[in-house]
Amino acid sequence: MIEADNLTKSYGPQAVLKGVSLSVKAGERVVLCGPSGSGKSTLIRCLNGLETRSGGAIRIAGHDLQPDCRNVLALGGEVGMVFQQFNLFPHKTALENLMLAPRRVRGLKRKEAVDLAMAMLERMRLADKAGSYPGQLSGGQQQRVAIARALCMAPKVMLFDEPTSALDPEMVKEVLDVMVDLSREGLTMVVVTHEMGFARSVADRVVFLDGGLIVESAEPQAFFDNPQQARTREFLQRIARH
């Protein structure tokens, strides 16, 4: 479902990705973790064309993504993205936020888009918030609306870029619960997160990045209980102290 080969990305003289290769099978759930500045978010943004890469190749959801991302619209919603800061349109209701892409990209009629959006809001236990604007919702509710918006496009791949890091601690669980439910449905997921409990219980594979490189990649039990690299052990020990 995802094939990234020798990805590089630089901002001027600063190399953020230094030859990262990552393969994700259909239905696989992969967690990317690592310290701030390790390249996790840059990698996930390159995968769906939000960032142009400096070098390397990307094939995702059956599409070869051109280096300049000119053909990103060919993805047509097959790759969904959930951001740290929700990125909802503040002047549109929750329902309108969900309806926009299905109507513009998929060409759904208004009633079809309404029915789809309401079904997704019900799935997120937010049907009663359909007429609410983002500013009237809690952070956890906004993030669930953002997840529902991505799911309205029936994506083959869902990318999550630290989806809980902007939330108050009591709101984190409601978003993680939704992501756990999605994982049970066989959706291909790549998740950048610091929630190691989620990584241990949900991921098929945990990938640790540091300094723009993949340092270690393993199944959760092996990753947490028997890390092979000293840098991985240091990272996990530091997380355990917090």
Search tags:
single chain; 242 residues; alpha/beta; six-stranded mixed sheet; four-stranded antiparallel sheet; 10 strands
Individual helix count: 8
Helix content: 25-40%
- The Rg value, from CA coordinates, equals 18 Å
Alpha carbon gap, first and last residue: 35 Å
Largest sheet: 6 strands, mixed
- SSE pattern: EEEHEEEHHHEHEHEEHH
In terms of DSSP E residues, the strand content is: 25-35%
* Protein structure class: alpha/beta
Parts with pLDDT < 50 across at least 5 consecutive residues? none
Question: How many runs of DSSP E, i.e. beta strands?
Answer: 10
Any idea what the shape is? Answer: globular
Strand order of the largest sheet: 6-7-8-3-9-10
Overall residue-averaged pLDDT value: 92
What does this structure look like?
The protein is α/β, with parallel strands linked by helices and 242 residues long. It has 8 helices and 10 strands. A 6-stranded mixed sheet has the order 6-7-8-3-9-10, sandwiched between helices. Helix 2 (94-104) packs across helix 3 (110-123), helix 2 (94-104) packs parallel to helix 4 and helix 3 crosses helix 4 (139-151). The protein is globular. 43% of the residues are buried. The model has no long low-confidence stretch (mean pLDDT 92).
Task: Give a topology summary.
Elements: E1 2-11, E2 14-24, E3 29-33, H1 40-47, E4 55-60, E5 63-65, E6 79-82, H2 94-104, H3 110-123, H4 139-151, E7 157-161, H5 169-183, E8 188-192, H6 196-202, E9 205-210, E10 213-218, H7 220-225, H8 230-241
Parallel strand pairs: 3-8, 3-9, 6-7, 7-8
Antiparallel strand pairs: 1-2, 1-4, 4-5, 9-10
Helix pairs in contact: 2-3, 2-4, 3-4, 4-5
